[in-house]
Here is the input.
Amino acid sequence: MQITEPLVKVEALVKRYPPSRANSRSEIAAAVDGISLSIFPGKTLALVGESGSGKSTLAFCIASMEKPTSGRIWIDGIELTAMSDRELRTTRPKVQLVFQDPAAAMNPRWTALQIVAEPLVIQNQIARSEQLDRAQELLQRVGLSADAGSRRLSEFSGGQRQRLAIARALALAPKLLILDEAFSALDCSVQAQMVNLLVELQSSTGITCLFITHDLSMAALLGDQIAVMERGKIVEGGDARDVVLHPLQESTRALLAASPRMNQPSDIPQNH
Amino acid sequence: MPTVLEVRDLHVDYRDARAKIKPALEGVSFTLRAGEILGVLGESGSGKSTLSSTVLRLLAPGGKIRSGSVRYDGHEILSQSERELEKIRGARIAIVFQEASLALHPTLRVGEQVARVIGAHRSLDRRARLNKAREVLAEVFRDDVGRIFSSYPHQLSGGQRQRVLIAQAIACNPAILIADEPTASLDTTTQSEILSLFAELQRRHGMALMLITHNPAILARLADRILVLYAGRVVEEGPAEVLLRSPQHPYLRDLLRSMTDSPEAALLHHKINLPTITGVALDLSVNSPGCVFAPRCEDRMDECAQREPITVAVEENHAVACFKYGG
Amino acid sequence: MRYLFRRFLHAIFLLLGVSILSFIFTALAPGNYFDEMRLNPQISPDTVTALRAHYGVDRPIVVRYARWLSSVAHGDLGFSFAYNSPAAPLLWARAWNTLLLTFTATLISWLIALPLGIWSAERKGRVSDVAITSATGLLLAMPDLLLALGLLILAVRTGWFPTGGMVSVGSESLSWFSRIRDLILHMALPVTALVLSTLPLLVRHVRSAMSEVLGAGFLRAAQAHGIPRRTILYRYALPAAAHPLISLFGFSIGALLSGSLIVEVVMSWPGLGPLLLEAILARDLYLVIGGVMLSTIFLVTGNFIADLLLYWADPRIRTS
Here is the structure.
């Protein structure tokens, strides 16, 4: 067994927000309270937690969109928490985020091609024509049709928009892809398609994923490892099999019990 | 069991800003019996939200009911006056919308919002209204009723807001409760609690419940019967257990196949390709003959591209619209 | 509560700031009342110098400001050189006249604008709405001056209304009832001019605030609960649209003393406007500052009232 270094290493991360008026959105206000984790290259860590558990805050810290209060984060051997703002700007492209509502982060007036090419345009390291070619390539990579590039956001369904978001996230060839409840708002059949897409992308590009969800079934499908988060702490973590089949913590057990099942006893008595 | 709602051959269109006609419901028929839980299974574009809006005759702007009938308690809803409908809405037929944060008034206290629904249908004085509102809230919130009663929506969590919507809907003891994606945007634990709440309320009040969702697992838990909508048409209808265990229509079969039964079952599919329904739902504004599911159907036959199948009974109470079974 | 206290302090500081600035600007403007006097051959230069010393015009500006501030604390707004009498009574008297006009006009404007704006928002895009939008657009484009003059011409041509002033000559001798009637006739045109100039803006704002709310989900939900249409409009939609309208209302109060200058001057209404105009031209320092401060007090009070109302109306401000 080859021992490799984790791509993502988080050590004793704490993020506290100053007590202020902005407390109606409990998810953002929740602190991250001493979290340590590792994600190995090419693997997926599924982070499971309910709203208010701090999972999005953790994602923001890892993506260096928020500055942690204390603790350390390494991406690909580079310590993010020791970098200046200027240096961070060069490492940010290594981590990309996909959110639950992709349309909120896309310009509705732009074509799909422009949206996907945007990161390349901003970085401006390759020629314009190459930027567009690469964008077109990405669109097809995520399973959109060849003519999708010229369509506008309003012409895409929810699942297609999420594909677009993933294509854009892949534009700068990131090492880590963070998906924050990215499939939660999609129809069931579309979720299955997206899961397949993600699995395929990971096997062909070797990209590492942090998949944040409140759905334990999704976590089991995608995660090599599962970490259960509650109130800013990781209460249970390990191989997906172990966490799902042999849960140790009460919270994990509660989540399993509450998960929707296709063959569960009906809530309604049978003589109904 | 007496029929409490009867929908016959409903055809509803939408006209978008460019006057392009998009059919939302085509020939939808079903009955809802008193005290039963009917699950309406449909994904985006299936017409499920249009269905609930039509039952209350509250179509979004641009919506037009072309033909059909919706009969409640002997009244034809589609021909009632607005005044008469105001008496039915919220009192006899009530709806719980999906986005709770958008369905509540931002600057009115929650208790007041429930009281106003009561006030619209019962002539009670202010104090009596508020008391009744408190009672209703106590039914959906186990504790902390006093605090919830005087809270504003932005002070409550997503699950709490959803409960308030439910309280508003049951406040006047309706005969029919329609829940449109009641657990969307909620966490797993909250989802489970809300579903238990629905079960409990249904048990206690005995109303007919129309549960609209895209997630079959929710219906597995609660529904007596299921109606499957695809592209505005009913493609299968029957007892919940039967449909979920042995689906007949290719769409339902493929949909169920693409889902994992539970987190434990999901482990078995880890990083293995899930069988999915190929392609995307078609653009309904383009009029093409033949079965709407045909482009994505594995069992496609020649007939399927020529005309639409009619609904055929495969068992008692179980009907499918597919050429495989006649039609 | 702390929020309100902060707004109150804010208001006080604003008043002080305005007083300092207006004092500086007026005092530093070239020329003063006494320079005009010097040109008058009938008054000897010695008298002028004596008067200047008497009024302390030669003192450094900081001293003058400090003295002014202390007298204001005693209710004394200074002295008017031109009228040769204390400034305060002059200002109050004129201010009352102005308020009579503007208060009436503002009340009428709001009473018309609310239902009209709501009605227009409900019928957005339809013929009736387009008609109202065009009409308000036209009125907005017309300068107050034009409106006032136009009405004046109307008065002259038809003789239905008096052509200016506040009361008719010799009206003191009339009965109480006739005097009221006389006043109303005199008020009619200036009020009309004011209403015509403020109404369009109000209608537009009400319409825009309402139409934003009309698409909201909670209105549809209320409809689904069987709440009658009327109730939804006035007890759900309007309160939700209150935020921008309350700010506008505060501004209406604020403009009570300052919005009618042109109309008053054109129609010879003895209000604060013409007084202020004269005083500025004559470099009548304390009258100018007194007038400006009075207007500012109204503006600041209006804003503060809006803050109070917003605090009361929007729980999201209260609970944060």
